[in-house]
Design a protein that fits this description.
This protein is of the alpha+beta class. 31% of the residues lie in helices and 21% in strands. It has one domain.
Amino acid sequence: MTQFNSVSSEAVPRFSLGQVFFSRAATTDIVPEDAFRSLKQHRFGDWGDLCAEDKEANETALQFGGRLFSVYHDRKDVKFWIITEADRNTTTVLLPDDY
């Protein structure tokens, strides 16, 4: 299960989320507070439960452009993804089965 670390109030977000969308399943299956906390962590570069290789891919995408991907689990152990598109205009919260 993802440990939700607090992000310093002095920290600066690393990128814009753009418009945020939730899949229908995400709105019904994920604990809302956990989804919003995870969105904040995603925005600050905490990629959740990704392997080292995928975390590095996100860091490269931040530098050179590209999609950003994070994986989290809510307090009920529901696994969900957060994807920010390369243009940073759209971020989607979804379950793996939604993809």
